[in-house]
Amino acid sequence: MIKAWNDIKDRADDTSPDQGGEFETKVALTDNIPFRFVLTHATQDEDTQLQRQIAATPRTYILGGHDHDIQYVDYSGTIFIGKNLSNAETIRVMLPLAGGRSACNEVYAAYQRLQKRQRNKRFLYPQDLEAVLLTVSDLDSDVLRERIQEQNPAEGSELKDVLNKARCEYDIPAFELTYEDHDMSDVAADEIIQAAIAKVELSDDDKLVRNFTGITALEARDHYIRKDATNMGVLVAECVRREAEAQLNQKGHRPAGAPAPVIALINSGAFRCDSELKPELKLRDLRETFLYDDDKAIMVLKVSAEVVRELVKHGTQETKKGTGAYPQLAGGWKTAKGDVWLAISSFLLIRADNNDGYNEVLQKFWKLPDAEATAEKALKEASDVRFSITDAVKNNAQAVPANKLPKQARKTVKGEAEILRLLQAYLKAFHENISPDDSNFPNKETWLESKVPIDQPAIREARDAVRGFLEERGTVKKYKDVAATLNKGAQWKDDARVAWTNARKELLELRGSLRSQDDPAFSTGDSYFRLFNAAVRGIPGWGLLPALT
Q1: How far apart, in whole angstroms, are the C-alpha atoms of residue 110 and residue 161?
Q2: In angstroms, rounded to a whole number, what is the distance separating the alpha carbons of residues 148 and 103?
Q3: pLDDT per residue over 503-527, tens digit each?
Q4: Domain ranges of the chain
């Protein structure tokens, strides 16, 4: 990535507008734009490295991806870095405005340079204005020129005074949206949404693949499936193993007698739903989970059992936990001997640019020079058995014994039962005392996030119980103590940020435990998730870090 950036920069430096060619023209034009956005799909460390290595050009913004669980903003240098949580858990809205503070600073710096070169000259409006506007982009100069003209300065005015009076806005006003900012769609909008969904829905989306009701929900949240074997992960791996075995047998690749065992390895990055799926597993769930699935998603090749164990060792090492490389496994990989059939996500072996590293294990085993050669070898060694993950689960889920699946990976969060009980009590008190027909129907979330007086004692007591429970959490109490010493807008010290981060982590874990409770509540317009957010907003001082909340 760094090399690619530097290659482009070098070509831009060596290119003049009259050299022609589509690429050269586009590069040459980049000097006449106010903003530069660098879109990456890299880790936080790689984004930081890129920030250090590219030219320190004002109004350059690195917008990162790849990391699912990192919320990160760095304003410390000339170049901004921003990363958001995945699956629209947080969305950063940025509005680039030409003629902002950076442009004003560049124009004023140009004025100072002119003044330094010609000390005895008076620079006047309007005759000398264009000389300083040349230093910024055409868009910047158009905006600044218009703002200056709005003042209607007199001809012959000192240019310095005119520039100082010009209105300067932020370069890029930004704000962040989270789950709590969503609202129920109105009827008209909902009809549009449902019509759009209907166009892409398949007729068999609601077909039941298997019903695990009474047995388990299916854990496919990133936080769990990327760190451990989960019931959904093992179910899918076992279905893939069975599908590979059936097709290998059908095509005569496993002759009777002593057929080589079949092992399945699916990288957790293949699971894209980041959800705890309901026990009634439907085709829609599979299609929404395996977004990159196709009829060649799984390849099957013969390797030694030792190689498989090396692949597993690679995927389960500490540095891979929490990433999409973490494997979901099926088959006797621990005890297998000799050659085995390995059913594996094709992406891991034939995409030379993937970051999961399984191809590097095979590259070393096959003694090949690079990832490209490894991909070619994998394709050559692979059998003619290729299939999609969705088809494998659809064909085999019913046959997988439930006792083969691990229990749900989710750990019980301290306090989750109590906060659910308190929120349920608050909703019960609210609905028992407030009529929906009331023309002054109050907002139950607003009451939770403030300490406004409530006439109904039952609602007031339930509200105060929710807020009191949250504010008495150990990390929250420590945060409140620190926040009480700071004024809004004051410089945050390290201990304040640490206290806020610890409190936020505990509250996010507690809030996450409410997600699976929300489906029935949404049908009545209530949401434990949103009620929790409202109560958190009521914690004293919680809004002092708008860039991070």
Answers
A1: 15
A2: 13
A3: 888 888 888 777 656 543 333 456 7
A4: 2-94, 102-165, 187-404, 413-544
Q: How far is it between the farthest Cα atoms of the chain?
A: 101
Cα angle: 281, vertex 282, 285; to 5 degrees: 90
What is the three-class DSSP state of 94? strand
**Cβ atoms of 388 and 293 closer than 8 Å:** yes
pLDDT band at 456 (very low <50, low <70, confident <90, very high): confident
Please give the average per-residue pLDDT across 77-100, as a whole number.
83
pLDDT of residue 491: 52
Residues sharing a CB contact under 8 Å with residue 297, sequence separation 6 or more, in sequence order: 270, 290, 345, 346, 347, 387, 388, 389
Angle between helices 528-537 and 457-471 (to 10 degrees): 70
- Contact indicator for 378, 363 with CB cutoff of 8 Å: no
CATH topology of domain 187-404: 5'-nucleotidase;  domain 2 (3.90.780)
Residue 33 amino acid letter:
I
Which tokens go with 53? Answer: 């290595």
How far apart CA 389 and CA 287 sit, in angstroms, is 10
**Per-residue pLDDT tens digits for 15-58:** 333 333 333 333 334 567 889 899 988 888 888 888 888 887 88
Percent helix, strand and coil across the chain, each rounded to 5? 50, 15, 40
Alpha helices in 434-488 (DSSP H): 444-448, 457-471, 474-483
For residues 470 and 473, give the distance between their C-alpha atoms in angstroms, rounded to a whole number. 6
Give the mean pLDDT of the chain: 83
In whole angstroms, give the CA distance from residue 454 to residue 433: 11
Comparing C-alpha atoms, which of 292, 101, 274, 282 is closest to residue 208?
282
The tokens for 254 are 């496993």
